[in-house]
Amino acid sequence: MPCAPRRSDRHIIPADAASVRALLQRLEDGPALSGLSASERDCTLLVLAEAMNNVVEHGYAGGPGWIGLSRGPGGTWRIVDSATPFMEMPSAPMPDQAAEGGFGWPLIRALSEEIRLARKRGLNVLTVRIRPDTAGHGQ
Amino acid sequence: MELAVRQDGAVTVVQPLAGRLDAMVAVQFKDRMKSAVEAGSSCILLDLSPIGFLDSSGLGAVVAIRRFLRQGQRFELAGLTPPVERVFRLTRMDSVFTIHAEVGDALRAAAL
């Protein structure tokens, strides 16, 4: 009898900082990032961290909720949540030297070559594709 | 997150005893750094060499530490691993801080 298809590349976690960290550590140790260079792996983990922590802190505003993470086609990642809809994707530039926050979205934009944010069936769906390490030494 | 604090000459060296400075520990890190800065000497050196993952919350906490400095007290960084260095560079916070490759470099510079 064939085994059930493995869906190890799909994750659903509670929307809190500890669960985000635990998922990132599982990804770091798992097969999902194999085949990437060290810098691509680091950049992927950073973009996913920023995207999921944004959902925790701003989407659900610290309240209860869930986050789904899956691999999409063409090396994309999808982050799904049921929090308050984004009005639009934040487009603020990197903050100035006095800032203590606001680095999250600028970091996502700096490290991603494709970012799409959509509202589908009452869910926020963020799709990102991490910039490849074309120079061999990464971002 | 625990911090190891030691005095080396005029420099108070603070080292996080954990590998991740992220959204989960950023507030606690900032609070403990505040205590270390208030009890520390005129130069505080944060040794980031154990940190293999830094996110924007962790970066914000490091930047916020400057608010706790006394008049004339310095705050410098050492030992940035490649993923940490990347975050400082992309956010241009590498131009805000004096950054030493290793703790030893910072201590030699302080002794000159």
Structural features, described:
The complex is a heterodimer of chains A (139) and B (112). Chain A is α+β, with helices and mostly antiparallel strands and 139 residues long. In chain A, 31% of the residues lie in helices and 24% in strands. The mean pLDDT of chain A is 87. Chain B is of the alpha/beta class. At the A-B interface, helix 1, helix 2 and helix 3 of A face helix 2 and helix 3 of B.
Tell me briefly what this model is.
By secondary structure, chain A is an alpha+beta fold.
Write the layout of secondary structure elements.
The complex is a heterodimer of chains A (139) and B (112).
Chain A (H helix, E strand, L loop, with lengths): L9 E5 L2 H13 L8 H22 L6 E6 L4 E6 L22 H8 E9 L2 E8 L9
Antiparallel strand pairs in A: 1-2, 2-3, 3-5, 4-5
Helix pairs in contact in A: 1-2, 2-3
Chain B lengths: L2 E6 L2 E6 L3 E2 L4 H14 L3 E5 L5 E2 L1 H9 L9 E5 L3 H9 L8 E2 L2 H9 L1
Helix pairs in contact in B: 1-2
Determine Rg of chain A (CA atoms, Å).
15 Å
What is the oligomeric state here? heterodimer
Strand content of chain B: 25-35%
Low-pLDDT segments, ≥5 res of chain A: none
SSE sequence of chain B, one letter per element: EEEHEEHEHEH
Number of strands of chain B: 7
Spans of chain B of at least 5 consecutive residues whose pLDDT stays below 50 are: none
Chain-averaged pLDDT of chain A: 87
Helical content of chain B (DSSP H or I, runs of 4+): 25-40%
Alpha-carbon Rg of chain B, integer: 13 Å
Question: What helical percentage do the residues of chain A reach?
Answer: 25-40%
The fraction of residues assigned to DSSP E strands of chain A is 15-25%
Structural class category of chain B: alpha/beta
SSE ordering of chain A: EHHEEHEE
Q: Look at the helices and sheets of chain A and give the structural class.
A: alpha+beta
Question: Biggest sheet of chain A: strands side by side, in what order?
Answer: 1-2-3-5-4
Overall geometry of chain B comes to globular
